[in-house]
Design a protein that fits this description.
It is a single chain. By secondary structure, the protein is of the alpha+beta class. The chain has a single domain (36-148), classed as Aspartate Aminotransferase, domain 1 (Alpha-Beta Complex), CATH 3.90.1150. 48% of the residues lie in helices and 10% in strands. It has 6 helices and 4 strands, in the order H-H-H-E-E-H-E-E-H-H. It has helices spanning 2-7, 23-36, 39-61, 87-96, 124-128, 133-148, and strands at residues 65-66, 75-79, 102-104, 118-122.
Length: 154
C-alpha cells in the first residue's frame, strides 16, 4: 500500500475524488504523529497551555480584554481597541520590537478587514524555545507596554 500512495491510485481516485497525495506531506504528517506519541509531547503541551494562560492573565491584569475571556489552548485573541489601538497599529508597533503577532478581526468588528480591532497571539514558538511562565509574564508586560505607548519610539 505504501507504494500505491506515493505512485498514484489510479483513475478512480486521481484526479477524480482526491488530489495528489504529495508524499512529502504524508511523510511530514507521519513525523508529526510520531512526535505526538512521545511522552515528552504531553509535557510540552501542558507547558504550552500553562504559558498561554499566564500570558492571558498578564494581559488582562494590564487592562486588555480577551475576546473569549481567557484561553484553553495555545492562542489568544486580544481586543486591542479596548486600549484604543487598532490591530494593524498594534501589530506594527510590536513588530518594531521583534514581537510577532497577527492583526485579527474580532466578533462584531467595526474596523475594516485590513485594519482590525484585535491581534492573535500564539505561544507555541516561544514554548518550543524553552520559555516558561515567568518568561510569558514578562512578554505580556512588554506587549502591554508597547501597545499602550505605540507612538513613543523609546
Amino acid at each position: 500500500m505504501q507504494g500505491a500512495v506515493c505512485q498514484g491510485m489510479g483513475q478512480g481516485h486521481l484526479p477524480g475524488i482526491q488530489g495528489g497525495p504529495l508524499c512529502h506531506i504524508v511523510a511530514a504528517k507521519a513525523a508529526c504523529l510520531y512526535e505526538a506519541m512521545q511522552p515528552e509531547y504531553k509535557t510540552y503541551i501542558k507547558q504550552l497551555l500553562d504559558n498561554c494562560q499566564v500570558l492571558a492573565g498578564t494581559l488582562q491584569e494590564e487592562g486588555f480584554r480577551l475576546v473569549t475571556g481567557g484561553t484553553d489552548n495555545h492562542l489568544l485573541l486580544l481586543d486591542t481597541m479596548s486600549m484604543g489601538v487598532t490591530g494593524r497599529d498594534a501589530e506594527t508597533a510590536l513588530d518594531e520590537v521583534n514581537i510577532t503577532v497577527n492583526k485579527n478581526a474580532i466578533p462584531f468588528d467595526q474596523q475594516k478587514p485590513n485594519i482590525t480591532s484585535g491581534i492573535r497571539i500564539g505561544t507555541a514558538a516561544m514554548t518550543t524555545k524553552g520559555f516558561k511562565e515567568d518568561d510569558f509574564r514578562q512578554v505580556g508586560k512588554w506587549i502591554a507596554e508597547v501597545i499602550k505607548n505605540k507612538d513613543d519610539e523609546n
